[in-house]
Amino acid sequence: MENLLSERIKSTPPSFVRSILKTAADPEIISFAGGLPNPVSFPQDDLLKSMERITKTYGSAVFQYSLTPGIFELRDYIARRYNKKFGLNLTYEDVLITTGSQQALDLAGKTILDKNDGVILEKPSYLGAIQVFSQYQPKFHMVELTEKGLNIEQLKQALNNDIKLIYAIPEFQNPTGLTYSKENREEVYEILKDKDIVLIEDDPYGELRFRGEHLPYIGAGRLKNSILLGSFSKTVTPGMRTGYMICQNRELLKNISVSKEASDLHTNVFAQYLIWDYLEHNDFDTHIAKIRELYKKQARAMLDSMDKYFPSNVSYTRPDGGMFLWVTLPENVSALELFPKALEKKVAFVPGDPFYINKKNVNTMRLNYTNADCETIQEGIKRLGELLKGL
Question: Which of 93, 229, 377, 389 is the most buried (most CB within 10 A)?
């Protein structure tokens, strides 16, 4: 079989989280492993009304082939929303609808990267991005993520290499939950503004800020090769797999659109009409505010429980939004080796290993707080705390 596989797929690691989710499928296990939105946040009744309305109103159009960039109505809605909320100057032509933001990463990699091209990632970085970009066999350069954002000196050193692309999640980063400060964003912008490098700012969690004020993007509206990614998976429904890419470099976006055309012609048309109709007929901001309040309570429940049950030599981030926080264990403790012991106590997390390049048995783990109620969170953290105290 080995001789039939491409070098590209051989270099692509399987999804660690997907493997864990299978392991944690036992209903008795309290899982903090997935990046799942809370199902109570899904506007099911309103989406059902939208399903009926688009079928009656648009008829065969919602079942027919469509344009590769996506339907005009949804792209125009996204452009107008970003112009209003973030002071950008977008039109629908700056927006490409994708099958989730995961596809957007794949299309960017396919369009931009050749083998051995330099890619800068945060350290640690989103494991889905590592998996996607690995297909194109680049040379990864990881820059330490601090509580304020990217380590500026390390970023400057990494840029001495032949870098083509930088991937970052400045808002409630996955896996750490950290957010770049305004000053750090400006420093990164100043370093990149004269360089011919693509900056991908992935922003699936920006709407989920439950404390503090939204900060400006690093590149959107400012850097010539800026790509901004967004998604309705965390605010409407993940199952529709509806994401989008914003890029005002029309030539770059046109080539990415060609990559999408070659991949799947276009994103699910019914899902696009459904999301757009829902957004047009409902108060989206009020809906998001309810999600923020829910996640604020769940994050508070997890942090309070960790303060109570975790030993003092274990540290963790305190996010202002998003879906995750990051735990650092004592130096000599491997989270990967701890994982099966946690399963015995019927609790699951994601060990830190897959969020790094070529690092094994690291002493970090990611916890998700959005997919369990507060009582379940408290019980799960208590079990983890007992395990950690017993080390």
Answer: 377
Tens-place pLDDT, residues 99-118: 999 999 999 999 999 999 99
DSSP β-bridge partners for residue 121: 142, 167
Beta strands in 129-209 (DSSP E): 139-146, 149-150, 163-168, 198-202
Candidates 364, 287, 318; CA nearest to 124 is 364
Q: Hey, what's the torsion of the CAs at 311, 312, 318, 323, to 10 degrees?
A: -20
- Which are the contacts of 23, defined by CB distance < 8 A and separation ≥ 6? 343, 348
Average pLDDT, rounded, for the chain:
94
Cα torsion 127, 86, 191, 187 to 10°: value is -90
Structure tokens at 316: 């963790």
| CA torsion angle 110 115 120 125 (round to 10) | 70
Which DSSP state fits 173?
-
CA distance 225 to 274: 31
Q: Tens digit of pLDDT for each residue in 64-89? A: 999 999 999 999 999 999 999 999 99
For the CA atoms of the chain, what is the radius of gyration?
Answer: 21
For 234, phi then psi, to 5°, come to: -95, -10
Residue 7 pLDDT: 77
**pTM exceeds cut of 0.85:** yes
In whole angstroms, what is the distance from residue 18 CA to residue 39 CA? 19
Please tell me the distance from the alpha carbon of residue 318 to that of residue 299, in angstroms, as a whole number.
9
Helix/strand/coil (H/E/C) assignment for every residue in 269-326: HHHHHHHHHHHHHCCHHHHHHHHHHHHHHHHHHHHHHHHHHCCCCCEECCCCECCEEE
Q: Which two tokens stand for residue 376?
A: 């379940």
